[in-house]
Specification:
heterodimer, A: alpha/beta, Rossmann fold, 22 strands, B: about 160 residues, alpha+beta, Alpha-Beta Plaits, 2 domains, 5-stranded antiparallel beta sheet, 4 helices
Chain lengths: ~575, ~160
C-alpha cells in the first residue's frame, strides 16, 4: 500500500478508473494537480485555449466512443467557463467528469481570489456533483463520479477539489475501491415485462405505425437491436436530431429526421400514425410542434431509461422504463414468439401512402431547392459533396444554426456516433472542440466540422490546440456572412428586419487566419471548383484544413414547422406550405 | 390540491440545496419545508408540501427520485397519513381581559403558554395546518406580534414505514 499526496491520488485514481487522457487548462487552485500530472505518463493532458473547449472536446470524445470524457479546470473563471460545456453535455445526456480546482478549504466563503461556488453554480446542469473535503476521499469520489456519469441516463458529474486537499506534502494511503455501491442510486435497466408484452401486441396490430427514436439509441449502443426490430416489423423509422445514425440513413425504411426541420414524409407520417413506438426519445418541443395538436390518433408506446422523461410532455399510453437495448431485445424475443399476424394489407397501404408523400415533397426523391451554379453555391450541395467525397464515412460534428440542419438533413448517417452535435442546448462553438475530441479518439477517420462563420468564431482559438496536439480536423465553413438561422427567422417572422444578424465587412480572412495557426486555408467561391477543392482538402490527411465556402446568402432551411401547428403543418419552401 | 411529500435523503453536502433547487428549476412551488436528521445521523428526513394535480405530483416525485442523494420519495397524500406542524406565536396580552380570553383560546386549541411578559404571551401549538390557521384566525384581533411555523412533518398511518 502506497502513501500519496492528494494530487497524485487524483491522477492515480483517474488511471485506475480507465482514464487515458483529459482536456484542461491550468490555474492557481489546480496547480498541485498539474504538478502531479507532470510527474507521470499514464494520463495524457491536452491543453486547450478556453475551458469551454476542454469540456466540449471531452464531450466529443465521449460521443464518438461511448466512453466517459474527462476535463480539468481551475477555480473561479476556469470553472464558470466550463459551465456552457457542462450544460451542453447535460442536455444531451453525455457522460463526463469535470474536475475543478477550488480555493483552499479555509478560504471557501471568504470571496477569495478566483473563488466560485462551483457545486452551486453547476447544480441545475449536472447529474451530480461532489465537493471533496479530504485527500482520503478522492479515490472513492472519483470511482463514484465515473459510475454515476456512465450508468442510468448518463450525464456530467462535477468533482470540486479545494487546493489544500491536493497539497503535495500531506500523504495518505491510496486505496482504489474495488466496486461502487450507493444505497441512494441504483438505476433500473430492464423494462416491465407486462408492459413490454402490451407494447408488442399493440405493435403487431398497428395499421399506420411509426418508429420514432432519439439519442437514447445512440447512447445505449442499441442501433443493431433497433434495426432488427424495425426490419422484423417492416415499420417506417424516423430519428430525432440526436438519434441520427441510430438507424441507417440510407435504408429504405428510413423517412429522415422528424421535427421542426424534419422531412415532410416523417412529420406527416407521425401526424397520421395510429401507433408511435418512441424509443430513447423525449418528445422535445423541437419535435412535437404544438403539443395539443401532436399526433391526435396515436397510441404512444414510450421506452426511456429516465422515468421523468416518460409522460413529461406527452402522456404515454404504454410507458416502459428501461434501457433501449434491454427493452428492444425483449421486444424482439416476444415478436418471434408471438402468434399475432400483422395486418399486411394495412401496412402495404401505409407504405404506399408514405411513398406518395416522399414523391410529392420528400427531400431525397428530388431536389427541393434551386441548383447550385457558378458563384451560387447552395449550402445543401456542400453537404451532399461532403457526403460524396467522404463516402458517407466521416464523423461529422457541427455547430448550431442552418448549417447544422443542412448537415442533419443531407449527410445520411448510416452508423451511430457518426453525427455529433449539440441538440438540446444548441451551443454555438461546440463544433471545433468536439471534432478535436472525435479526432483524438479516431485518428484514422475523417472528422469534419460543419460550421458557419458565426459559430466557428465562438471557439476558433482552438485552431491553436489542433496544432499543438496534432488533430487534423477538416473545417467546412458554410459562410453566408450572416447568422443564417437568426436571419431566416427574421425573414419569416420579423419582416426581414435583420437586427444584429449581419457582420457588415467585419469578417476575418479565414484563409489567412487558418494559415497563421500553421494550417491550410482554402476559399471556395465557385461551385465548379467545390469538388476538386474538397477532395484536395480530405487528401491532406495530416493537416487541419479550413474550407471557407461562400454559400448562397438567401437560402432558408426547409421544411420548417409552422409555429402553433401540428406535426404536418410545414413550410416547404419560401412560398409553399402544406 | 395540497401534496405532502416525504423524502429520505443522504445527509450530504449540498443535498438539501439540490432538492430545493429542483423546485425552482422546474417551476414548482414549495409551500412548507421541514428537514432534520433522523435516528440514523447519515440520513435526513424531509417533508415538503406543494400544490399540484396528480400528473404534476407524479413528475415531482419522479424528479426528486432522480436526484442521486434521495433514497426514498413518497407522496403521503396518496394514502392515509398524519400531518403535524408546530407553531410559536407571540401575542399582545396587556390587560386582564385579553389575558383571560387568550388563555381560554389556548385551552380550547390544546396549546400551551410557554413564555409570559407584562406585555405579551408566547403560545405553543401543534396540529395539522388547518388547526393552526384556525387558531391564528381566532386570536388575530388581539394583536399578533410574531408567528413561527415549523412547516408540516408527515408520516403514514398504520404499519407502513419509510426507511433506508
Amino acid at each position: 500500500m502506497e502513501h500519496l499526496s492528494g494530487g497524485d491520488i487524483l491522477i492515480r485514481a483517474l488511471k485506475d478508473v480507465g482514464v487515458t487522457h483529459l482536456w484542461g487548462y491550468p490555474g492557481g487552485a489546480a496547480l498541485h494537480i498539474y504538478d502531479a500530472i507532470y510527474r507521470q505518463e499514464d494520463v495524457v493532458h491536452l491543453l486547450v485555449r478556453h475551458e469551454q473547449a476542454a469540456v466540449h472536446a471531452a464531450d466529443g470524445f465521449s460521443r464518438a466512443t461511448g466512453e466517459v470524457g474527462t476535463a480539468l479546470v481551475t477555480s473561479g473563471p476556469g470553472a464558470t467557463n466550463a459551465i456552457t460545456g457542462i450544460a451542453t453535455a447535460y442536455m444531451d445526456s453525455i457522460p463526463l467528469v469535470v474536475i475543478s480546482g477550488q480555493v483552499p478549504s479555509s478560504k471557501i466563503g471568504q470571496d477569495a481570489f478566483q473563488e466560485t461556488d462551483m457545486v452551486g453554480v453547476s447544480r441545475p446542469i449536472v447529474k451530480h456533483s461532489f465537493l471533496v473535503t479530504k485527500a482520503e476521499d478522492i479515490a472513492s469520489t472519483i470511482a463514484k463520479a465515473y459510475y454515476i456519469a456512465s450508468t442510468g441516463r448518463p450525464g456530467p458529474v462535477v468533482v470540486d477539489i479545494p487546493k489544500d486537499v491536493t497539497e503535495p506534502n500531506r500523504k495518505v494511503l491510496y486505496e482504489f475501491p474495488s466496486d461502487v455501491k450507493m444505497r441512494s442510486y441504483q438505476p433500473s435497466n430492464t423494462g416491465h415485462r407486462g408492459q413490454i408484452k402490451r407494447a408488442v401486441k399493440t405493435l403487431l396490430e398497428a395499421k399506420r405505425p411509426v418508429i420514432y427514436t432519439g439519442g437514447g439509441i445512440v447512447i445505449d449502443n442499441a442501433s443493431e437491436q433497433l434495426t432488427a426490430v424495425a426490419r422484423k416489423l417492416n415499420f417506417p423509422v424516423t430519428n430525432t436530431l440526436m438519434g441520427l445514425g441510430g438507424f441507417p440513413g440510407t435504408d429504405k425504411q428510413f423517412m429522415g429526421m422528424l421535427g421542426m426541420h424534419g422531412t415532410f414524409e416523417a412529420n406527416t407520417a407521425m401526424h397520421h400514425a395510429d401507433v408511435i413506438f418512441a424509443v430513447g426519445a423525449r418528445f422535445d418541443d423541437r419535435v412535437t410542434n404544438e403539443i395539443e395538436k401532436f399526433c391526435p390518433m396515436a397510441t404512444i408506446i414510450h421506452v426511456d431509461i429516465d422515468p421523468t422523461s416518460v409522460s413529461k410532455n406527452v402522456v404515454a399510453d404504454i410507458p416502459i422504463v428501461g434501457t433501449c437495448n434491454s427493452v428492444l431485445r425483449e421486444v424482439m424475443l416476444l415478436l418471434e414468439q408471438s402468434s399475432i399476424e400483422q395486418d399486411h394489407e394495412a401496412l402495404k397501404n401505409w407504405w404506399e401512402q408514405i411513398d406518395e408523400w416522399r414523391q410529392a415533397n420528400g427531400l431525397y426523391t428530388a431536389s427541393r431547392y434551386e441548383e447550385s451554379s457558378g458563384d451560387i453555391i447552395k449550402p445543401q450541395d456542400v453537404i451532399k459533396m461532403l457526403y460524396k467525397v467522404t463516402k458517407g464515412k466521416a464523423i461529422v460534428t457541427s455547430d448550431v444554426g442552418q448549417h447544422q440542419m443542412f448537415a442533419a438533413q443531407y449527410y445520411l448517417f448510416d452508423h451511430p456516433r457518426q453525427w455529433i452535435n449539440s441538440g438540446g442546448l444548441g451551443t454555438m462553438g461546440f463544433g471545433l472542440p468536439s471534432a478535436m475530441g472525435a479526432k483524438f479518439a479516431f485518428p484514422d477517420t475523417d472528422v469534419a466540422c460543419v460550421t458557419g462563420e458565426g459559430s466557428i468564431q465562438m471557439c476558433i482559438q482552438e485552431l491553436s490546440a489542433c496544432s499543438q496536439h496534432n488533430l487534423p480536423v477538416k473545417i467546412i465553413n458554410l459562410n453566408n456572412a450572416a447568422l443564417g438561422m437568426v436571419r431566416q427567422w427574421q425573414d419569416m417572422q420579423y419582416n426581414s428586419r435583420y437586427s444584429q444578424s449581419v457582420y457588415e465587412e467585419s469578417l476575418p480572412d479565414f484563409v489567412a487566419l487558418a494559415e497563421s495557426y500553421g494550417h491550410v486555408g482554402m476559399k471556395v467561391t465557385n461551385f465548379d471548383e467545390l469538388e476538386d477543392k474538397m477532395r484536395e482538402c480530405f487528401a491532406m490527411k495530416d493537416r487541419v484544413v479550413f474550407m471557407d465556402i461562400c454559400v448562397d446568402r438567401s437560402e432558408h432551411v426547409y421544411p420548417m414547422h409552422m409555429p402553433g401547428g401540428s406535426m404536418r403543418d410545414l413550410w416547404l419552401s419560401k412560398t409553399e406550405r402544406t | 390540491m395540497k401534496r405532502i411529500i416525504s423524502i429520505l435523503l443522504e445527509n450530504e453536502f449540498g443535498a438539501l440545496s439540490r432538492v430545493v433547487g429542483l423546485f425552482s428549476q422546474r417551476g414548482y412551488n414549495i409551500d412548507t419545508l421541514a428537514v432534520a436528521p433522523t435516528d440514523d445521523e447519515t440520513l435526513s428526513r424531509l417533508t415538503l408540501t406543494t400544490q399540484g394535480d396528480s400528473q404534476m405530483a407524479e413528475q415531482i416525485v419522479k424528479q426528486l427520485h432522480k436526484l442521486i442523494d434521495t433514497i426514498k420519495v413518497v407522496d403521503l397524500t396518496e394514502g392515509p397519513h398524519i400531518e403535524r406542524e408546530l407553531m410559536l406565536l407571540k401575542i399582545k396580552a396587556q390587560d386582564n381581559d385579553s389575558r383571560t380570553e387568550l388563555k381560554s383560546c389556548v385551552e380550547i386549541f390544546r396549546g400551551h403558554i410557554i413564555d409570559v411578559t407584562p406585555a405579551s404571551y408566547t403560545v405553543q401549538l401543534a396540529g395539522d395546518s388547518e388547526k393552526l390557521d384556525a387558531f391564528i384566525e381566532a386570536v388575530s384581533h388581539m394583536g399578533i406580534m410574531e408567528v413561527v411555523r415549523s412547516g408540516v412533518s408527515g408520516i403514514s398511518r398504520g404499519d407502513k414505514f419509510i426507511r433506508a
